[in-house]
Amino acid sequence: MKRELWNQDWFGPFAVTVLAIVIVGALKPSFLSPFNIQILLLAISVNALVAFSQMVIIAIGQMNLSVGAIGGLAAISFAGMMEVWGLPWPVAAVLSLGIGLLAGLTNGLLCAYTGISAFVITLATLSVFKGFNLGITEAQPFYDVPEMVKWLGNATVLGPIPWLVLPFAVSAVALWYLLFRLPLGRSVLAVGGNTHAAELSGISVPRIVVFAHSVSGLLAAMAGIMLVARLQLGQPSIGDDWLILSFAAPIIGGAVLTGGRVSVGGTCCGVAIVAIITQVLVLFNIDPFLVQVVLGGLILWAVGVNRIREVRGQRKAAAAGI
Amino acid sequence: MKAPVFEAGNVTKVFPGVLALDEVNLKLASGSIHALLGENGAGKSTLIKIMTGVHRPDGGVMKIDGQPFSPHTTRDAISSGVGVVYQERNLIPQFSIAENIFLERLSAKPLQRIDYPALYADAQKWLDLLEIDARPETQVDKLNVARMQLVEIAKALSLNTRILLLDEPTASLTQHETETLFGILNRLRENGASLVFVSHKLEEVQEICDRVTVLRDGRNACESRALHGLDRQDIVRLMIGRSEQIPQWNQRDISGDKVALDIRNVATQDGHRDINFQLGKGEVLGLYGLVGSGRTELAKALIGAGNVTSGEIRIDGEIAKIGSVADALHQYGIGYVSEDRKGEGLILIHSVLENAGITVWKRLKNAFGLLSDRAVVNSVDPVLKKLEVRTPSSRQIVGNLSGGNQQKVSVAKWLAANVKILIVDEPTVGVDIKTKAYVHELIRELADSGTSILLITSDMPEMVTVADRILVMDEFELRGEIVNDRNYDLVSERIMHHIHGSNEEAAE
After folding, report:
1. Which of B113, B126, B377, B506 falls 20 to 30 Å from B157 in CA-CA distance?
2. Which chain A residue has the Cα nearest residue B45?
3. Residue-range domains of chain B with CATH
4. d(CA A217, CA A107)
5. Stated pTM of the model
C-alpha cells in the first residue's frame, strides 16, 4: 500500500507552490510572462543546489554551516583559474568542483573521526574557507569571465527555460535516485534516523558521514560555479547569504532536522516558494528586506505543519490499536 | 476495605475511533500496593494518564479522600498528591541527584540564588529513606539504572505524593535490584502510602501486591479485589480471557551438534578476561548476568562494535577476524537484536519496511547498484508475515507501533538477513504475555531450524523456559555453566549461587 498522495512529504509544499503561482498569476499577469519565468527558474536552479547541499547533511542529522563558504571558494576558484591561468572553462569547472569535493571531504573526515559536533567543525571550516577566498581575491572580483560561460548563465534552451536548469534537474534526479534507490543513500538516511541502530545493523557510520559531507561540498561548489555564470563575474561575496535559505528550503520541504527524513521534491518546492515570495515582493513594490521576515515565518510554519502531521500519525496509530 | 484514598468511578475515555476506557472502576486504599494489570492496549496507560492529569476523562468521576479530583494538568495531579514513575527515565542526566529531585523548586523564587548545601542536605534525607547509596551531588548519568529508578521514586515522594503510580518499575532491573526495590516499597506501604504497581511480571505482582485490578479491552476484568487466593492462572485468565499455554519444551539433545561459535580466552577493551565458551549449531545458549556485568558489552565485542584485545573467535572452526558490524553480518552471518529497541534497535521515524530491510540492502542491489522496492518487499514480507507483525501496511512508521510489534520488527531485520548466529539481548523487556510467549516460540523455532542463538536475559523464568545451557556472567567474567534441566527452582538457585557466591567474595 502506497502512502496517500496528501501524506507524501512533498505534497504540502507542492500545493502551496501551485496555489502561489495561481494567485500571483491572477493578480499580476506579468508574473507569468516568459521573461519573468526565466528569472524565476534561474533563481530556483542555483538556490536548489544550495538547498540540496544542506539537505544531504540534514539527512544524516547534522548541520553544515560552511555551505556558503565552500560555494564562494569554488566560485572564485572557477573565475580565477579562467582569468589568471587562462584555463578553458570546462577544465576550470571540473577543478573547482574538485575543490568543493575536497572541502566537503575535509569536513566529513573531521566530523567522522574527531567526535566533535558538525556544527563546531563547519563553523571553523566556514572561517577557513572564507579566509582562503579573501586571501586569493583580496576581496576584489574576477571580471574576466569567458563569453561562453556568460552565455550559459543566461541563455535559454527552450522557451523560457534557461540552460542552468540542466545541472539543477540532473542533480535533483541523481539525489532522489541516490537517497531512495541506492543502498548507499538509504544508509545515509538510516544514519540520520538512528546512528546507533544503523551502526549495529552493519552500516559504517564514519564512511557515510564522510560521503554525505563530500556530496554536500560538491553540490555547494556547483551552485557557486553556476552563480559565476549567472552574475558574469567571480564575486568573492558569493555564498555569504546562503545559510538561511539552505536550511529553510529543506525544512519547508518536510525535512526532519534531527535527521533521517528529507524530500528532494519538497526541497525543490521550498526553493520555489522562497523564489516566488521574493519576486512577489518586487512585483508589488514591497521592501525586499521583508524577505527575511517572511522566510523566518515560513520556517516556523513548515516546522509547525510537520509537527501536526507527526501528532496526527501517532493518534491514528493509537486509534487503530496497533 | 478501609475508606479508599482514591476512587475512580465509571471512568470512560474515547480516542478518535476507539473506546480506550469503558466505565472503569478503581479503588485504592492507604497502606496498600495495588496491582494494575492488563495486556498491552488494555487501557492501563490511559488510566494512568487520566489519573495524572495528562488526559481528561470523557465520563465518570475521580475522588481523593472523598473530594472530587479532576486534574487538568500534571501539576494539578502532583499538588493533589498523585505521582508517577514512568518506564522511560525522566531525569536530566547532566544534573546532580539533588537537582533532579528538586528540579522545579531549586529555590523559593526563580531569581533567588540556589542554596546548594541546603539542597544537598534535603536530598540526603530522601536518599537515606530509600537507602540509595550515592551522594546528592553525584551527576545522575553516573548512576546505574536501578539507582536512577530510586531517584525518580525519591523525586515523586518528595512532592508529598500519597498515591504513587509505578509503571513497569522493574522492567530494567535485575532480580537482586528488584528485591531491594521491593524492600523499599514494602516500607512505604507500612508507612501508609498507596502504591499502584504496573507490571507484566506476574511473579513479582504475586510477591509484592495485596490487591489487584485487571483491565481487558478497556473494561474491568476484575476490580480492586484481594490478590490473596488468586493464582497465576487465575490472573492470566482475567487478563487474556483464557488460560495461558505454558510450553512444555523437552530437553533437546544438542551434544552431537557442530560448534558454530567457539570463543577461546577472549579479552576485551571493556574488561572481559578469559572468556571461553562454545555455541553449538541450533543451540540456545543463555547468558545470564546482572545489568553492568558485561553481558551486552561482550555481545557488542563479538559483533565488531567493541574491541576484542586478545583471544580467538572461531566460526564453524575457522578463525574469524571481525573488524566491524558489517564484517560480522556479511562475512560471518552474526546478528544482534539490541536490548535498547528505541535507542539502538530501530529507526523509529522510518517505515517497517525500511527497518526490516536495512540488513539486506547490500545483498539485494542489482548489477547497477539499484535497490528496487519490490526486491526489499519480497525478502522482508515473508518474515513480517511469519512474525505476525501487526501493522496496517509495511509503510507504517515503526514509532507508531506498539512495543511488542516494534520488538518483532527488530527481530525481523535479522531474520531477513538469514543470519547463522543470532545474539538476542533482553528480547521481552516490556512486552506482554502473549507477545512474550510468541518471542520464546520464535527463538525456539529458529534454533530448531539450525540458527545458533545466544540469549542474554535477566528474566529468570524466560531463561529457564528457553535456554538449553546457561552461562553466568558477573564482573566481566564467566562464573559458571549450567545445563538447564527446566527445573525452575533448582536452576535459578544455582544461577544465584554463581553470582552471589562471587559477589560476597568481591564485597569483602
Report:
1. B113
2. A318
3. 6-240 (3.40.50.300), 258-333+422-508 (3.40.50.300), 345-418 (no CATH)
4. 9
5. 0.75
